[in-house]
Amino acid sequence: MKPVRHALVFAFGLVCAAQLAAAEPAAWLLDMGSDQSPLWAGFTRVTPATTYDAGRGYGWLNPPEDLRANEAELVDALGADNIWGKLNKRIGFQLDLPDGRYTVFVLTGAMGNVVHLRYLRAAHEWTLQGKIAGRIEPAEEELFRTANYDWRKGDDAYDHFVRPRYQWLKHDATASEGRLEIGFNSGLDFPVAAMIVVPHEHTQKAEKAVLRLEAERRAAFHQLWAQLPQPADPPAPVSDPQRERGYVVAAVDCDDDLHPWSQPAADASRREIAIFAAAGEQEQASLAVFASRDLDQVGIETSDLRSREGHAIPAAAIERGLVQFTPWPARGSRRHAQYWIQECLILPHRPTWIGAGTCKRFWLTVRVPPGTPPGVFEGRITVSAAGAPSASLELKLRVLPFALAVPPLEHFMYFGSMYHLAGFYMPRFDEQRYWDSMREEVRFARDNDFCRAECIVGRWGGGRSSDFKIEDGRVTDVDLSDTEKLMRLLRDENAWPRDNAMICRTEPMLYLGGGRIATAERRLTFCPTPEGRANFIRAVQIIDRKARQAGWPEVVFDCFGEYTNFGEEGKQFGLAVHASLKEAGVLNTLRGNGASDMACVLEGLVAIPQPNWAMMRTEWLDFMKKHSRRLWAYNYAESRFAFGWFSFKHGFQRGSYESGVYANGQPGNPFDTETMFPMGLPLAMTRIAPALWLKRLVEGGDDYRYLYTLDRLLADAQPSTSEDARRAAGEARKWLDEKLATVPNGLDRLRADPRDFGNVQGDLWPKHVLGRYRQEAAEHIIAVRKALGRTGR
Q1: Domain count across the chain
Q2: Are residues 351 and 477 in the same domain?
Q3: What is the pLDDT of residue 11?
Q4: How many other C-beta atoms are found inside a 10 Å radius of the C-beta of residue 302?
Q5: Domain at 374, CATH number
């Protein structure tokens, strides 16, 4: 018996020490991964380079270049690493064994990022001695299970987010001619984390050992990850009827965050929710149920809202949602593997379970129909739970006597779109489902004050050779058929960008005729041949011309961005690319985060800068405002304040964020990837739920509209011949200027100083003042309009 097999048997604990002296091994324990990935104690490491060798007695039957190793962070050593095939073909592994019957266990599964979603979507099979041992046909809903997660008191995060990503396969096999061959088809869809092979007579012992392994994997996860305690709220007063009912219902400010053990705020109303909105606007409201005993089937219903004048807003205009609690890495704590339970998505309304001593929030989005007459509309929100008396809150909506002006402002989600990630979400591509998903994404963006217009050059983030027609070494045409379909969809869904602009990412075009990009080791270089640079410019010009001829939104070209991450090389890359775009005579934009990006702006190469918060120094902002065609902003807003007051003061005409709705990992699984800060997440291929913070950005966009409406009205009123109008306008202008004076002119501390990030989010403003300031802005609008004698909307 070979020494490695002795060690495996001893570590696995399948047989007693006396059996180690036997002539035949009792178990093979193989942990798949890379040379550097963690190794589970007692297992033998297998890497892509472990090619079959008769002297070793085991190994892959494929060459190393056909295989790849993956390693996820902060998962147990057995599950963290695995081996896949690089190509859509079979991969095989051989063990040299004495002839006889064996039982084979395979641990399959992976975590890490979007690349590893294929095995949750594509059917795959494994074979023993060339015969099918099992076929895995993953249910589509399994991919979206974690996005639909509804937290319950006592849940173990491992059970919901890690364990379901793996499964142990087991099958009997017969070794013949001294070998056993295990195959995986397709290797591209089949992550292999570990293999165990035992003689058939040891099967029961092996099954028990696998159960012990799973218990140890769970323990390893909890040693890696720590759930942070949430600060305790002071106990809230409870009346006798509320105590007897078993729960308290109270309004919750939409700008407040809850955790499962929150208590009602001291000033929270337990009788009513009062909100206001203009016709055509959406307004947010929320309430929470605070349970003193276990409650099941908890839900809410809303009635129609009616005014004393007999007008009605139907209950169908009130969208109900359940705010999801889920584990989430604490900011800056992922590397330390700490998480807490926090609010994330607003799930479609569903009955839920609320444990004693915990709470859950319900969310209301009231969409006021255009043309709704002004007045106060009243209705009720009824809370019910199985085996408990119902409770209710009044819902009062004041519809304002004016319409909000539409500013030249748009919001855009840069990444996380189906047209960049379809290859992972649909490895067996379905054209109809692709466009159905795209339609849902367009609707979702439109309904949440964002746009999804983009010039698509190559699906799934990369250009296809068929996208570019090349004759005699010259680009002569670019295939924009997908963009044409998207434009039709935008028109169908009334989702055209309000600023009539759309991004075109030029990364796929950099490869034309000799361009080269290297991002390894934080390096970024652009080294095209002269012919390649000319082709790049021609491709850009062709796209720009075709978009104009088709009447599409104005195309604004960008290329990567955040060059400061790459230092001097990033700066030189940016200068070269944006000089080419300027030479092409097209509009271009740059998503910047520091000095290397600002160098391109200072050279006059960028028509529309997009600084993030780290590039918003006062001096730089002033320069960009004076020397740019327009000023956009990028990755600067995680709050209502940033999208509202901060954006209004600085005149941003577009606010963009890198996150989208299709996560760079399993949707809703925070242990899968650290790059998941969603605007929303798909609950199914054609259904998307918004994140709570997206609704706060929507509120910020509405704040901007109130300020813009007031500012335009003041421009009309201040030169008026009416003394009343000038007086009302003067009071409103004084109020507005005083508030804007407290908004930062720029962010002038050291780059990446977290205090600056808090500054742009409005941490220096008490968040509850935002609602009050909007109400004051509305009252000023009403007063100035009245003084001007304007009665219609």
Answers
A1: 3
A2: no
A3: 39
A4: 21
A5: 2.60.40.10
Domain assignment of residue 757, yes or no = no
Structure confidence at residue 692 (pLDDT): 95
Residue 336 has a pLDDT of 65
Dihedral sign from CA coordinates of 618, 620, 624, 627: positive
Other CB atoms within 10 Å distance of the CB of residue 420: 21
Q: Are residues 464 and 383 in the same domain?
A: no
- Taking the C-alpha atoms of residue 589 and residue 43, their distance in angstroms, rounded to an integer, is 52
Residue 526 has pLDDT above 80, yes or no: no
Helix axes 481-492, 431-447, angle to 10 degrees: 50
pLDDT value for 270: 96
> What's the CATH number where 64 sits?
2.60.120.430
Q: What is the DSSP string of 754-765?
A: HHHHHHHTTTTS
Residues 250 and 342 placed together within one structural domain of the fold = yes
Tokens coding 278: 């203009």
Tokens of 622: 């002033």
- Is 675 in contact with 113 (CB distance < 8 Å)? yes
How far apart CA 724 and CA 732 sit, in angstroms, is: 12
Q: How many residues does the chain have?
A: 793
178 and 291 housed in the same domain: no
Which of 506-510, 543-547, 612-616 is predicted least confidently?
506-510
Nearest to 368 by CA among 340, 403, 322, 416: 403
pLDDT for 516 equals: 56
Residue 50 belongs to domain spanning? 3-111+162-224
Question: Three-state secondary structure along 168-203?
Answer: EEEEEEEEECCEEEEEEECHHHCCEEEEEEEEHHHH
Single pTM value for the model: 0.93
Residue 171: inside a domain, yes or no?
Answer: yes
Identify the CA nearest to 445 among candidates 211, 168, 706, 698: 698
State the Cα–Cα distance between residues 403 and 782, nearest whole angstrom: 11
Q: pLDDT digit string (tens) for 365-382?
A: 999 999 999 999 999 999
Residue 528 pLDDT exceeds 80: no
Same domain, 266 and 187: no
Model pLDDT for residues 281-293, shown as the tens digit of each residue: 999 999 999 999 9
The strand pairing partners of 319, in sequence order, are 365
Going by pLDDT thresholds of 50, 70 and 90, the confidence category of residue 20 is: very low
> What separation in angstroms does the CA of 326 have from each of 117, 156, 254, 332, 687?
21, 11, 18, 18, 19
C-alpha 9: how far from its chain's center? 44
H/E element, 707: helix 692-717
pLDDT, tens digit (0-9, with 9 covering 90-100), for 98-129: 999 999 999 999 997 777 788 888 999 999 99
Same domain, 395 and 414: no
Distance from C-alpha of 369 to C-alpha of 278, rounded to nearest angstrom: 9
pLDDT band at 205 (very low <50, low <70, confident <90, very high): very high
Concatenating the DSSP letter of every residue in 88-126 gives SS-EEEEEE--SEEEEEEEEEE--SSGGGGGGGTS-EEE
| pLDDT (0 to 100) of residue 6 | 34
Residue 370 DSSP symbol: T
Question: For residue 51, what is the DSSP state?
Answer: B
Which runs of consecutive H residues, i.e. helices, occur in 253-396?
Answer: none
Question: Distance of CA 790 to CAs 375, 453, 782, Å?
Answer: 17, 37, 9
pLDDT for 624 equals 98
Looking at the DSSP assignment, which residues form a beta bridge with residue 51? 60
User: For residue 342, with 0-12 CB atoms within 10 Å meaning exposed, 13-18 middle and 19 or more buried, which class applies?
Assistant: buried
**Amino acid (1-letter code) at residue 772:** R
Same domain for 258 and 389, yes or no, is: yes
272 Cβ neighbours under 8 A, 6+ residues apart: 251, 393, 394, 395, 396
* Amino acid 519: pLDDT: 52
Q: What are phi and psi of 669, to 5 degrees?
A: -105, 95
pLDDT band at 763 (very low <50, low <70, confident <90, very high): confident
